[in-house]
Write a structure and sequence with these properties.
Number of strands: 4
CATH class: Alpha Beta
CATH architecture: 3-Layer(aba) Sandwich
Oligomer: single chain
């Protein structure tokens, strides 16, 4: 199972990011374990200074602002090629 952490204070952008990740993975049959981290000391331990931050299997994949669905899907699909708009 893929471990996903959404780091943020609980603001609207963080909530929206968490919901989008859940929606995209559900729609595409990707099984994840989704955790929300609101503790600022823990968030800063990742080096994240702008939220929401997203960690997938220990790797920072997003910092600041709400990611789009296409970006979210690319975090989970190894056959997705970001250089070619037709891949995803």
């Amino acid at each position: 199972m893929i471990e996903v952490k959404v780091l943020g204070s609980g603001c609207k952008n963080c909530q929206t990011t968490q919901k989008l990740i859940g929606d995209v993975t559900s729609e595409n049959g990707v099984e994840i374990s989704l955790e929300k981290i609101e503790d600022m000391a823990e968030i800063m331990s990742y080096g994240i200074m702008s939220t929401p931050g997203v960690i997938v299997d220990g790797k920072i994949v997003h910092v600041g602002g709400i990611p789009d669905k296409r970006s979210i899907l690319s975090w989970f699909k190894s056959d997705c090629c970001p250089a070619d708009d037709q891949c995803c």
